[in-house]
Amino acid sequence: MTIPLPPNPHAIAVLLLTGLALVLFSRDRLPLETSSLVILVCLAVGFEIFPFEADGTRLRAVDFFLGFGNEALVAVCALMIAGQGILRTGALDPVGRSLARFWRVSPGLSLLLTLLLGGFISAFINNVPVVVLLLPVLISVSLKTDTPAAKVLMPMGFSTLLGGTTTTIGTSTNLLVVGVAMEMGLTPFNMFDFAGPAVLAGLIGAAYLWLVAPRLLPGRKICLADSSPRIFTAHLAVTRGGPLDGQPLLKALDMTGNRMKINSLERGEGNRVMLLPDVILAPGDHLVVSDTPERLKEFERILSGTLYPVGSEDEPVSEKNPLSDKDQQVAEIAVFQGSRLHGTTLSDYHLFERTGFIALAIHRSGKRYERVEDHVGDIRLRVGDILLVQGPRRNLAVLKRNTDFLLLDSAMDLPYSRKAPLALAIMLAVIAASATGILTIAISATAGALLMILTGCLTWRDATRALSVQVILIVVTSLALGTAMIRTGGAQYLGSVFVALSGSASPAMILSGLMLLMAGLTNIISNNATAVIGTPIAVSIARQMGLAPEPFVLAVLFGANMSYATPMAYKTNLLVMNAGEYAFSDFLKVGVPLVLIMWGASSFLLPFFYM
User: Fold this and answer.
1) pLDDT digits (tens, 9 = 90+) for 537-566
2) Which of 14, 167, 71 is CA-nearest to residue 481?
3) Distance between CA 283 and CA 244 in Å, rounded?
């Protein structure tokens, strides 16, 4: 075994920078978009100060920014927008409702059907909307049937990853691998070119998720099943000579630390006064307030007022005349990718003013926060957070229409959007145009995104919120690193090292080893980064061995999609982790065997189909 000599200084620098990128991408405290921009700037500045020429052609610094116009990135962004149209219109809601009904008949078969259906849909639509669709179905069913949601949420999330591996548009990772391979001179992959081995391996993985995974997961119930304090609406009367007599409304808010939620101000029965901060309060005025019983009594004491239940203004609150929560509804809402709630607080968002609902609790990553409104309102929200809210049943339609969060109760009898069939038809047309070869996926997806906007399935605000800066920057940076590795000879060097270390191993063994390496990296760093960095290495290995590069490229694609072992490996893992309150060890317990199963199956199937 002879290890090749190190390449030129530029290649060494690029390999070191690639190693730094892998370290930065695995740091939780540093945002992924920041890490990506750091690497991109280092590449551009470094090659501008220290020029590099190969075969008479100079590698310009501006070449590293060409990834912003890369066909694969255009396709990824367009599919994000088109997928947001499906989510925004609720086009897949009937699927979720049908699953929920069938689940009550046969839970075991329903889990299998959910896994297969989730995988099938994810083959054509980004799996984030699919997970967002199925999460409320499974959570709602678990609460109604008194079964542990933790046993089914993770298998469902992993099934969408299995399905996403089967087509070129299933995940952004697939699009990137196909795009980079095409740039390196390989024949473009059609949509279903590798569906055979991917589907067979996926079915083996689905069987594990159906029969084994639920037995490995904890049987605990998630916090949403716990009893929660209720919100009540009451009238707080201003008393003569009290601290509010003759004072502006703003003083009532100041005295309660802006914690009091005032629905309206009544001056005499049915006579409402506009809620202005400087309106002067008079004895007998009623502040219509919504909160927990404890907080309402606290406001009564602070403001020296008198508390009455709604409809019982002649008799103050007492044990014989308690508060009433008639026609109130408790619901769960989730913060999803692209939501305006991400990065803000409920206090800043003004949830009550927008929807008429008040937050009772927050559920995040297995942590149980105090059900105290002060804490919930001040917590900076992030993707995957689930909020328990309460408000009038008549306001459920307001929650449903709001595009800043997802209402997590698919069993509610709420109307579908009239644009849903149109959005579904547009997405099917995008898939058909690409699958038949009429248009490339970048063009068909862009046309589909435009149609979503022109037909009113999406607004421009919805479209821009669907785009992820993190995904865009990691893709561009990964493409830039791939370009630098190829042009400087770094990829060829790594391929030579891999071949040398493999010794006399057969091509099938080398392919299997490459796939396992990619599977390990994708659970530590971004799967997109793993895919784009691994693709040129795979092509270099194949060419040095004198073999067709396609199976080695697919080994990278399959390996980079094995994001099962850690919650940070893929964004849907984080959504599932937050909703199911899983620990890191739960992912290791279920995900590592799944990685090994998929690696073993793919190691057999890829050589069988392609060698």
Assistant:
1) 888 888 888 888 999 999 999 999 999 988
2) 14
3) 8
